[in-house]
Amino acid sequence: MRFTDEHRLLRDAVRDLVEREINPHVDEWEAARSFPAHALFKIFGRAGYLGITKPHAYGGMELDWSYAMVMAEALGHARCGAVPMAIGVQTDMCTPALARFGSDELKREFLAPSIAGDLVGSIGVSESVAGSDVAAIKTTAVKDGGDYVVRGEKMWITNGIQADWMCCLVNTSDDPPHRNKSLIVVPLDAPGVERSTKLEKLGMWASDTAQIFFDGVRVPQRYRIGDEGMGFTYQMMQFQEERLWGAANVLTALEDLIQDTIDYARQRRAFGRAILDNQVVHFRLAELQTEIEALRSLVYRATELLVAGDDVTLLASMAKLKAGRLARQVSDACLQYWGGQGYMWESPVARAYRDCRLMSIGGGADEVMLSIICKHQGTLPGTGG
Amino acid sequence: MRIAVCIKQVPDTEARLRVRKDGLWVEEEDLPFVINESDNYALEEALTIAEKTAGEVVVVSLGPERVKDALRKALALGASRAVHLAEEAFQGGDALATGRALAAAIAGQEVDLVLTGSQSDDVGYGATGSVIAGHLGWPHAWLVMGLEIEEGGTSARVTREMESGMNEIFRLQLPAVIEVQAGINHPRYASLKGIMAAKRKPIERPSPADLGLEASQIGAAGSRLEVLEVAFPDSGEGAEMLEGDAATMARTLVEKLQREARVL
Ligand SMILES: Cc1cc2nc3c(=O)[nH]c(=O)nc-3n(C[C@H](O)[C@H](O)[C@H](O)COP(=O)(O)OP(=O)(O)OC[C@H]3O[C@@H](n4cnc5c(N)ncnc54)[C@H](O)[C@@H]3O)c2cc1C
Question: Distance, in angstroms, between B100 CA and closest chain A CA?
Answer without folding.
Answer: 31
